[in-house]
Structures are given as C-alpha cells and as structure tokens.
Amino acid sequence: MSKLIYVVDDESNIRTMMQLFLENEGFTVETFKDGQEACQAFSAKEPDMLILDIMMPGIDGLSLCTYFRRQSHVPIIFVSAKDTPLDRVMGITLGSDDYITKPFLPLEFVARVKALFRRSDPHFYDAGMTDPVTRFVCGNLVLFPVSHRVTIQERDLNVTPTEFDFLLYMIQRADNAVSKKELAEQVWHFQGPDPEADIPEDFIKRLRKKLLSFGSTALIETVWGFGYRMSERRPEGIESI
Asked: For the whole model, what pTM was predicted?
C-alpha cells in the first residue's frame, strides 16, 4: 500500500514540485496551502508523513508541528528557507525528524523522504545485515531494531523516529559516555565548527520524562562538560542529573 504524505506549503509552485517528484516515486500525496486545511485533513485521516513549511500565514509550521506531535508520532520534515542552527534546533525540539532548507535539489528531497521512511520502516534494519540483532536491553527498556519497537515492562512506548534513533545509539553504547559532538553528528546529522552546541536540550528532557512516566529503569544521565550516558537505575535509585 502506498505511503500517504501531506505537504503543507503556502507556495503553490513548491507544493506542485514536491507532489510531482514524490508521486513519481510511488507515494500518495495530498497538498495544503495553509495549516487550517492540514489540520482538518489530519483529523479525518492521519498520513504516514508530514512535510511542513515554517513561514506560512495563519498557523505557521512550528505551531503545526507542536499540534501534530501532541497527537501522533508520525514522521515530520520541515522544509524552510530559514537556515540557522537555532532554526534547526527549534525544529528538532518541537518534534520534527528532519530539516531541509530551500532551495533544494528535488532528488535530494526525495532521498531524504525515503531515508526517513527507512528509519521508521520495520524492515529497514534487515537490509545489509547478515545477522541482525533482534533486541537491545538496558534495565527494563528494550529496543527491537527490526520491528522498530520500544517496550518498557513489556508495554509499547510510542516514540518518534528521531527518539528511536537516539535511544538505539545510546543503548548500543550503554554505560559509556557519549559526547554531544558525536550525538549531534551521528543522530541529528548536524554539521559545522561547533555541532555539539546544537544539541536540543529540550529533546533530552522530553524523552527523559517519557521514559520516567513508563517506569523505565534505564536512565539518560548527563556527563557534565561532555555529553550523556545511558545506564540502568541502581537498586538504591540513582536519578538522572
């Protein structure tokens, strides 16, 4: 069944171009010129992905992302002419999974869409892996790369693709300190002279809160002046810093 993508952009030529290239790749695409139309469509049927412009009249893309993220873990991509580290961090903080700047090459745009789907596709980790690991465990937190599931005490925890990528990266390095620079480059794919400065702290806080609400014994600890470490809560109860 074809993946359904909602494209929300106030520029008709951009909407038409994205729809054309995505449909040529077999996706089903519905376009909307403003946030109100997109919200109405979302209420009727949830898509498999959202592509949002940021600067739009009425409801802007950042507000839309916040609205959709409160209801769903559907993958979200920002496509915007705004291209500063602060803009990118704001997008990730609000719950987006990728950020593409205008102008962009259509083939690169399609590749990024496909890459995000592969990150959230249950069969993605089968490709190129002769002996895929079926699960990773830290305390009562369990990640299943093949099915792209996260469970705590055998209850499914809903996470976004980026949250899953972060947890997988950390659980594979459990009990080891991982630098902010490494996370910025490997999880968020930030580039630049000081990528660690772009780590979205609100993302970490939100994920910690989500884990705690499910009773996770896996902790995301702050390693002051360096980065983070995932470890299991000790019997005496060590809280994350």
From this structure: 0.67
Q: What is the pLDDT of residues 38-74, one digit of tens each?
A: 999 999 999 999 999 999 989 999 999 999 999 998 9
Q: Give the residue among 115, 130, 141 at the shortest CA–CA distance from 231.
A: 141
Q: How far apart are CA 133 and CA 130, in angstroms?
A: 10
CA torsion 114→118→120→124, rounded to 10°? 170
User: pLDDT at residue 145 above 60?
Assistant: yes
Flag whether pLDDT at 131 surpasses 60: no
User: Helices marked H in 9-105 — which ranges?
Assistant: 12-24, 35-44, 61-71, 85-94
Q: What is the torsional sign of CA 120, 105, 4, 84? A: positive
List, in sequence order, every residue forming a beta bridge with 218; answer none if it has no partner: 232
Could you tell me which residue, 76 or 181, shows the higher pLDDT? Answer: 76
Sign of CA dihedral 190, 86, 53, 50: positive
The span from the CA of 117 to the CA of 113, in Å, is 6
Average of per-residue pLDDT across 2-15: 94
CA torsion sign for 61, 52, 166, 193 is negative
132 vs 150: CA distance, rounded Å: 16
